[in-house]
Amino acid sequence: MGHTSAHQFRMRKAALLPLVSALLLLACGGSDETLSVTELSEKTHVHGLAVAADDPERLYIASHFGLYVADPGGTARLVSEERHDFMGFTPHPLEPQTLFASGHPHGGGNLGFLVSEDRGVTWTRRASGVRGPVDFHQMDVSPADANVIYGVYQGLLQHSADGGHTWELRGQAPQGLIELAASSRRPERLFAATQNGLLVSHDGGGNWERAHSSTAPSSTVRTVAAGHVYAYIVGVGLVQASEGSLNWRVVGEHWGDDFMLHLAVDPSDPNRMFTVNSQGRVLSSSDGGASWAPF
């Protein structure tokens, strides 16, 4: 199976995977609130990662069965009793206690746009979104303006300018969209990792152009406060550039048939990174993405 077809197959997430994950949890003791990161990745799949801005030893892991926090020793602790399927997850860029999410409740349906103001312990629906309740699989808040949030539901890009209270449609999302990343410099700039390459929009998703010359699938994209953007491109590797120039350099070699799915960069130390690979394993790097090891 070639790089592109393997990528598309895995990214589509076979319909039976949630059921298999649920059975594994029941068989292994799904009520456990503390387990190793390795056990967590074996029991369920991870939808998002983030390092707390005020505590570099706090790694959020948004999963199919709730939000966990992992410590440097590799122990993951369930944060909330609400075992939502957090398909979309992103922290507030200025308020460490505030988190945003979307996805599915444990009993089925859609969550809409959720907010937690106590680091993920309790969640409330802030809005249903357009044609909602929405289930944002791709979602990000702008580090340049925390009131600006983007989300994608049913192939349509939605935009909020008031912190997620109200939403409007911006049009079709890029075809084959995998992940969104809002600019850390301009709230109207938006990056998209897609099955057809890495794209950028300078008008809030109205128009898109290539951000990187490769047309190979881009499986993840992330911006950081320093004005840099990172992306993983199949067959190329982990690349990094200044948002202003988009002159890319490879910081980590490609992984063959494996690839990155989600990327988190420590706000206090850009050399410290975390990712989830295509097998669902959480990995860490202490040298800016040049080398990786199991968390």
From TrEMBL:
Residues 1-27 form the signal peptide. Gene3D superfamilies: YVTN repeat-like/Quinoprotein amine dehydrogenase. Keywords: Signal. InterPro entries: WD40/YVTN_repeat-like_dom_sf (IPR015943). This is Photosystem II stability/assembly factor-like uncharacterized protein. It comes from Natronocella acetinitrilica.
